[in-house]
Design goal:
By secondary structure, the chain is an alpha+beta fold. It has one domain. Helix content is about 35%, strand content about 20%. It has two helices and four strands; from the N terminus they run H-E-E-H-E-E. It has a four-stranded antiparallel sheet, covered by helices on one side. Helix 1 packs across helix 2. The chain is globular and about 45 Å long. It starts with a helix and ends in a 7-residue tail after the last strand. The mean pLDDT is about 90.
């Protein structure tokens, strides 16, 4: 069971990542063939479930991380074709840049940032729920 503020935070995060998904689809959609079982962009009600990209986060308590707890950013390309490492890096950098732009818009009352944590980027900073 989650606190309503947790649901609100997660819903805002989902909205932000749906916007990032749209930017990625506009730029790279159609570049690689989708997996056989992957619906085309816009064929489902959830951008995570269709098109070339599935972008989002998952929470980590940050044990062993210099950045501590936060949300690791995951960028999945729904293709079986080989995507050059250079392009994968370019896509990750674009996601990082978009997050740095969007975090203050979607979470104006929080100090959040994005940094590399191991092999992924992590959103970290003010993740508290405030007064309950």
């Amino acid at each position: 069971m989650y606190h309503p503020k947790t649901h609100e935070f997660d819903d805002t995060m989902k909205t932000m990542f749906d916007r990032i998904d749209a930017v990625l689809e506009d730029r790279y959609g159609g570049t690689w063939k989708l997996r056989r079982n992957r619906p085309k962009r816009g064929e489902t009600a959830n951008p995570e479930a269709d098109g070339l990209f599935n972008v989002g986060t998952f929470f980590t308590p940050g044990y062993g991380s210099r950045l501590g707890r936060g949300y690791l950013v995951e960028v999945i390309l729904a293709t079986d074709e080989g995507v050059p490492t250079r392009i994968q890096d370019e896509i990750e950098m674009l996601v990082r840049d978009l997050l740095l732009d969007y975090l203050s818009e979607y979470f104006p009352d929080r100090k959040l940032t994005v940094e590399r944590d191991g092999s992924r980027y992590k959103i970290h900073g003010d993740l508290g729920l405030g007064s309950l």
